[in-house]
Amino acid sequence: MEKIPNRKEIINRRALVLAISEIAERHAPSSFEFRRDTLKLLKKNLDAGNKVVEKRFLQSNKGRAMMYAQCFLVDQIIRSIFDIATQHVYPLSNPTPEEKLSLVAVGGYGRGELAPYSDVDLLFLFPYKQTSWCEQVIEFVLYMLWDLGLKVGHSTRNVNECIRLAKKDTTIQTAILEARYLWGDQEMFKEMYRKYMKEVVAGHSRDFIDAKLEERKERHERFGNSRYVVEPNIKEGKGGLRDLQTLFWIAKFLHGTTDISKLVELGVFTEKERRKFTKASNFLRSVRCHLHYLTRRPEERITFDVQPELAKRLQYKDHAGTKGVERFMKHYFLVAKDVGDLTRIFCASLEAEQQKMSRLPIPRLGLGKRKLKGYIVESGRINVSDDDDFKKDPIKMLEMFHLAQEKGLDVHPNALRLIRQDLRLVNRSLRSDLKANELFLEMMTSRKDPETTLRRLNEAGVFGRFIPDFGRVVAQMQHDMYHVYTVDEHTIRAIGIISQIEAGALAEDHPLSHKIMPKIVSRNVLYCAVLIHDIAKGRGGDHSILGAEVAEKLCPRLGLSPSETETVAWLVRYHLTFSGFAFKRDISDPKTVEDFVEIVQSPERLRLLLVLTVADIRAVGPNVWNGWKGQLLRELYYVAENALTGGHVSEGRTERAKHCQNELREQLTGWKKNDVERHIGRFYQSYWIATSNEDRVVHAELMRAADKDGSLFTVEAKSDPFRAITEVIVYTADHPGLFSRITGAMSVSGANIVDAKIHTTTDGMALDTFYIQDSEGQAYDQRGRMKKLRQAIEDTLQGVRKPHLEIVDRRESSLPSRTEVFTVQPSVILDNKASNTHTVIEVRGRDRPGLLANLTRTLFNLSLSISSAHIATYGERAVDVFYVKDSFGLKITNKVKLANIEKKLLVALSEDMAPKRKAAKSKKQQTAEADGQ
After folding, report:
1. What average pLDDT does this structure show over 431-436?
2. H or E stretch including 733?
3. Are 114 and 71 in contact (CB under 8 A)?
4. CB-count exposure of residue 607 (10 Å: 0-12, 13-18, 19+)
5. Using CA atoms, how far apart are residues 141 and 134, in angstroms rounded to an integer?
6. Looking at the structure, do residues 235 and 142 belong to the same domain, yes or no?
7. Which of 299, 333, 357 is the last residue of a domain?
8. pLDDT at 36
9. 557-568 burial, b if ≥16 CB within 10 A, otherwise e?
């Protein structure tokens, strides 16, 4: 343990011992008063020491020093308690050989590092069998520690048990490896450790290393198998503290030391790597200590709500185009990447060491060395034949990865280490080399797992050096709940998804993309567009526009023709357009298709844009894509394809309506002719354009049955697991505010509305269709939920329930939502060009339960009629689009009224920004207002 300055300021054990002796003089050691006063004294010393340690840490930001100081404080408290037990409470005048006890610190505590709220792991060591005296002392120590509020993990064993269990259990083996004598009988501890080194460590290094590396692999898989998740686990996640600790454990088991300088002497690390190791270790420890102090618990996840405060404490400032919190997290990810590099270097050294120690080499596949095009292949991994190969010919840095991809090989850690040392050779000269660019393009567009190859290039640092614009987004996160990965990881995953679609691996999830991939003329265009689509994020402007400018410069360098370059730049510029139209606009409105086709202009671009959009959404995170999004994209694709290949978009609206009516006449075979004509006459022209033939048949049968039964209220629901959606049809008498009331009922029932169509018949009935999901983005079809939802809608329409009041009550009493961490600037866009028949209102704000109900009630109060609603959520951001008309069935063109609509909707969104700051109105006031509506 490092020297801790001014230890007595933290805790003065001599003074503490004297104070305990004074208590023992006043009270009998076995009395309640002795225990009470002693505990009070210990608590006072522990609290005072904790405050000193925290104060020092907040002033210095040095996590390692803090952990040592915390460990010292706890050491002194435990030693004092042990002395109280053995000298005052259970003293022995003539102890037998069996009445001995040794206190041993194990785990992280044994290593001498204790984070503010970490567990204190203790081993109580006794000689042969446990005596009653040992039991009494152990019980006293533990109860005192628990009463002090410390979280203690403990085990009680004799020396032989420790050795026997360590041989069987790697966890116990590791814990004892870090064991540190704390107090009590020191000779017994030394005996145990001598036996451990002789019987457990000696000759078993290979087994221990294999177990630890396998344990590390399983842990990575458990925590997402990526160091680039935006809410990483600093302790257990990939590139976190546990990875560094694994290196320490192996080093101690193999070399008998955890001193990083000794590992430099042994040739495991270079001096530069030692500095990187120390820097990474210190940074991670500091972040972890801040995390514990900030949350006041042993929290290991760097969640969104703590990231801004951590950035502030670690003095990361906002810069142009980048927030301080994003700069902090980028630093974290780069450190995690360094940990990964050091792990690979260490593993390469281990392998070399093991091969020296063994007469037989230990390749995984039992294959010896062989030569391949000037490289060495060993154990299924490619390596350079000479350590100066990259210096002599820098293009080999790319050539080696290309060959590894082609032959299905891994890259040897030694080669990766040499690359990291020679990265400066990836310079302007290499970037302008035709052969180098050809190799990179071939790797990215290869049919042999380009995702793995690009990730290896990125891990080695070559990717960001060879494509400097990509290097700017390496480890860059966006501080929001929508994006799960950093920009570079998202991009590499998106390229992997394109490759999987092309190979047919995702044919079931993305049938249309799979179908049209063979029709795409230029694969290079598609892959380059995916590479560049987010490359300009974090530059302080529209990343789509800035990315298109990057494409115009980068694509010719990669060997694309002028026409291909133009297409890539167009795809990057409009890569959000397909999803924007599909998720936010009414596809049944001819103007939507007209505007979209005007941007796309060709079937080839339509195909490219669809596949790019699918890959982009799918690569955002594991739970972002669902069948409903796929359905919306497919619908827009088909109508746009029809328009681009000779179909009409907005012309012949009346003819289209008549055609749809004739289709329905043919379908309703069991109906009387008069009944069919009466039903057709109940709908306006917009209904026939906006619905499918299948839906029109369902509507007709539902309405016929309801009218026959004289039912005033009908709800029909069906779920589609593939689209991850439940369709709910509500047929009832139309009245003002109907849509708002239904959305409120759905909100309090836990249903998320993603789309809605509203149709009114000529005889005053409403036929509203809602597409809903549960909170996980899946179909809302769990047992009993639809029954409750139907009842909630009926009770709301009858005035029995008032959902908007329930929503307010729930918001006031609920715990803070994770979305409240983020600031989403509310905005309202009123567009009279997006539709020929409606005013389109786009509302953006922070998502929360009941937001849609609140917005629709505001629109109702403004005397606006909603024809359709399209709901999209991007993490903490909600984007809701409404197609509306005024009370006369016309667009809203009056500037004063448009301004009033914007003002009222902004007020509704602003209330959402701080839902719990305003005092809630009395129930009486709320009920009066509701009745007034």
Report:
1. 96
2. strand 725-733
3. yes
4. buried
5. 11
6. no
7. 357
8. 93
9. bbebeeebbbbb
What residue has token string 């080999």?
396
Tell me how far apart the 2 most distant CA atoms of the chain are, in Å: 111
**List of residues 6+ apart from 742 with CB closer than 8 A:** 730, 768, 770, 793, 796, 797
The whole-number pLDDT of residue 587 equals: 85
Cross-sheet strand order for the sheet of 152-158: 152-158, 120-126, 102-105, 180-184
Three-state SS at 465 = helix
What tens digit of pLDDT does each residue of 488-534 get? 999 999 999 999 999 999 999 899 999 999 999 889 999 999 999 99
Residue 205: other Cβ atoms inside 10 A: 17
Asked if residue 295 and residue 217 are part of one domain, the reply reads yes
In the predicted model, what is the mean pLDDT of the chain?
86
Secondary structure of residue 332 in the 3-state scheme = helix
**Choice between 259 and 730, residue whose per-residue pLDDT is larger:** 730
Name which of 623-632, 842-851, 907-916 the model is least confident about.
907-916
Same domain, 767 and 890: no
Question: Is the CB of residue 494 less than 8 Å from the CB of residue 615?
Answer: yes
- Its domain, for residue 347, covers 207-357
Do residue 493 and residue 593 come from a single domain? Answer: yes
Q: Tally the domains of the chain.
A: 5
CB 675 within 8 A of CB 704: yes
DSSP per-residue codes, 527-586: HHHHHHTTTTTTSSS-HHHHHHHHHHHHHHHHT--HHHHHHHHHHHHTTTHHHHHHHHS-
Assigned domain for 435 exists: no
Does residue 533 sit within a domain?
yes
**In-domain check, residue 315:** yes
Q: Residue written as tokens 């990875």?
A: 243
pTM of the model: 0.78
Pairing type for strands 152-158 and 120-126 reads parallel
pLDDT digit string (tens) for 346-368? Answer: 776 776 666 555 544 444 434 46
How far apart CA 148 and CA 44 sit, in angstroms, is 10
φ and ψ of 647, to 5 deg: -75, 165
pLDDT of residue 282: 92
* Dist CA 417 CA 270 (whole Å): 10
- Quick check: 818 pLDDT over 90? no
Domain boundary among 651, 666, 693: 651
Residues 199-233 pLDDT 10s: 998 878 888 888 888 888 888 888 766 777 778 88
Q: How far apart are CA 535 and CA 699, in angstroms?
A: 47
Residues 171 and 237 reside in one and the same domain? no
Beta strands in 108-239 (DSSP E): 120-126, 152-158, 180-184
Q: What is the CA radius of gyration of the chain?
A: 34
Class of residue 714 by CB neighbours under 10 A (exposed 0-12, middle 13-18, buried 19+):
middle
In a domain, 296, yes or no: yes
pLDDT surpasses 50 at 871: yes
Euclidean distance between CA atoms 487 and 473, whole angstroms: 6
Question: What integer pLDDT is reported at residue 933 of this predicted model?
Answer: 36
640 and 762 belong to one structural domain: no
Question: Is residue 819 predicted with pLDDT exceeding 80?
Answer: no
Nearest to 122 by CA among 139, 137, 142: 142
Q: Higher-confidence residue: 649 or 234? A: 234
